[in-house]
């Protein structure tokens, strides 16, 4: 845990202050038929940094890392998307294919920059 704290401090120093250099990122998650994913979460991550967002009922999201809507530093990220519910028998019902929720299997990446800060993703339902 201490290692992560020092990496975070180093990241803050590198970008000249914790909020300077962050890029606000938003977008939309839809199914292959164009209908929105109406709940769940999305994360953009590297080995040392992560920003997350809650997927809204219209499929849109805004990323947060240190404060609401601040986004994240420019760079290349692995993108994961998770959405599930629990049924009456306490079983997990996946709303999207679980492949999208694992950093080792997700097909999604994002190269965040001042010129690229809107990202849309198409997901499939579980098989």
Keywords:
34% strand, 127 residues, single chain, Immunoglobulin-like, mainly beta, four-stranded antiparallel beta sheet, three-stranded mixed beta sheet, 1 helix
Overall description:
This protein is mainly beta. It is 10% helix and 34% strand. It has a four-stranded antiparallel β-sheet, with no helix packed on it. The protein has a three-stranded mixed β-sheet with strand order 4-1-9, with no helix packed on it. Strands 6-7 form a two-stranded antiparallel sheet. The protein is globular, with a radius of gyration of 15 Å.
CATH topology: Immunoglobulin-like
CATH class: Mainly Beta
Kindly, what is the distance between the CA atoms of the first and last residues, rounded to a whole number of angstroms?
37 Å
User: Total strand count, please?
Assistant: 9
Q: What would you give as the CATH superfamily?
A: Immunoglobulins
Strand order of the largest sheet: 3-2-5-8
Helix count equals 1
**Oligomeric state, counting identical vs distinct chains:** single chain
Proper CATH architecture:
Sandwich
Outline of the structure:
This protein is about 10% helix and about 35% strand. It has about 130 residues and is mainly beta.
Task: Note the topology.
Blueprint (H helix, E strand, L loop, with lengths): L1 H13 L11 E6 L9 E5 L4 E5 L5 E3 L12 E8 L1 E3 L5 E3 L14 E4 L5 E6 L4
Parallel strand pairs: 1-9
Antiparallel strand pairs: 1-4, 2-3, 2-5, 5-8, 6-7
